Amino acid sequence: MxxxxxxxxxxAKRYPDKTAFADPEKSITFGELSDMxxxxxxxxxxxxxxxxxxxxxxxxxYMEKNVDAVCAMLGGVRAGGFYSFIxxxxxxxxxxxxxxxxxxxxxxxxxxxxDALKRIITARTNEVASGILSDPHFFDDPSADHIPExxxxxxxxxxxxxxxxxxxLLRMAEDMSYDRMPLYVNxxxxxxxxxxxxxxxHSSVIEFIGEFTKCFDIxxxxxxxxxxxxxxxxxxxxxxxxxxxxxxxQLIPRDYFxxxxxxxxxxxxxxxxTLIWAVSAMCFVSIMNGxxxxxxxxxxxxxxxxxxxxxxxLNKWRSFLPDATYVNLYGPTEITCNCTYYILDREFDKDExxxxxxxxxxxxxxxxxxxxxxxxxxDREGEICVGGSCLALxxxxxxxxxxxxxxxxxxxxxFYERIYRTGDLGKYDADGNLIYTSRKDFQIKHMGxxxxxxxxxxxxxxxxxxxxxxxxxxxxxxxxLLFYTGSADKKDLQESLxxxxxxxxxxxxxxxxxxxxxxxxxxxxxxxxxxx
Length: 532
What we know:
Elements: H1 5-14, E1 19-22, E2 27-29, H2 30-46, E3 58-62, H3 67-78, E4 82-85, H4 92-102, E5 106-109, H5 111-130, E6 149-152, H6 153-161, H7 167-176, E7 182-188, E8 196-201, H8 202-215, E9 223-226, H9 234-245, E10 248-251, H10 260-269, E11 274-278, H11 279-287, H12 290-293, E12 301-305, H13 311-320, E13 325-330, E14 340-343, E15 358-359, E16 363-368, E17 382-388, E18 394-395, H14 399-405, E19 406-408, E20 418-428, E21 434-439, E22 443-446, E23 449-452, H15 453-461, E24 466-474, E25 479-486, H16 490-498, E26 509-513, H17 526-530
Parallel strand pairs: 1-10, 3-4, 3-5, 5-6, 9-10, 9-11, 11-12, 12-13, 25-26
Antiparallel strand pairs: 1-2, 7-8, 8-18, 13-14, 14-15, 16-17, 17-20, 19-20, 20-21, 22-23, 24-25
Helix pairs in contact: 1-2, 1-9, 2-3, 2-6, 2-7, 3-6, 4-5, 8-9, 11-13
């Protein structure tokens, strides 16, 4: 297999009349999806949307996920391009910065977001025409003067329905494809303020999804509830697990995660069997008592990633769905979704860390110490590094950052071996499981002691009536700041921490919040906490 479209073709042959994707408004079978993808690919190749799409050229999306978006993104992939979803919730200035890096052939949008996209494009057009670079991150590449065309998704679908499939053009595109072509680019925050686009190739997704679905026995009998937006790589596991196995992918609109009763009805009414969710989404359900309202009884696989899962929230899920398989997944975007997994086979104490587990087949995961030497001992910390065929291609149009993160394995002087340095810290337990401990940049030196902020967070989360906890460090004031949500009394929390932490690890300030600020990927926004 050299292209993910082969996943769709296989399922379309085996299950032509089976629903492939569905949202609250629309559904599409594998056979219909395959047909629509070929029609949209023909439009791209004929140049009836934005000029003939060149191989490995990007297609942007400025809209929320839905069934039509799946058709359009796979149509672009079938034509030899790649897709990139631009977060519609980010500031328009940041969206312009993303577009300047991406330089897509076309941006597909919908009625709801069309006006905002016009403002973004107009601002970009004016800057190109005048040479005024009002946004310092807008033109990091002086040649980035391409103004993309735009099209409404409804117009694209209408054009595709009236388009005849051109087998000759499709065959030419297929002949030119190869497995290291980019499939998607997901943008993450950059330390300099310029978003980084993580480019992931077909081969990485093919390799990972093949192992992922085999490991957790995902089949055509499953209904996968897609929680993550398409600009977040958790969605990759949903989309391509469905395409490969014939499972149905049920798309959950973003706003359902503000209405627990609507969400739980949706899961139960659609006979969902599989959740591959961000930790924050699972915590939302448990905090809002969604499981008490209505239990989706057919759920039998629950996988979570993105942050450390608070044990108290995990235990609540397990009390309602005790027979489901629970899996902790670990891995950053740059290694194609996940590199390790841990199947929970026992109970965990509230202050106990859930292991990141063991590597997926054909992935190399190891620890390096500060001298770039292998860490093999139990409980000794090192930076988590990853190698293997699932590594991303690099950061799109950013060779400097790519060369810093994707490097030669420093313990291998015998042949070229590309690895990714995650910046995460971890250690091994006595059973050989990897334990994620913290980020390198969450490790601080305070009062002469090296401190992992994650350790304080775990101690706080073990306190009754604390629902979430997050620690940040105010470098200027040399003060540890603890933020938490829940009904726990602040004094009781501090007294509990004094029984678990040495004096130098005690927070200098503890703040109770109604809710944690979140970034676009559903993780706690630590930078925003520092501004409180």
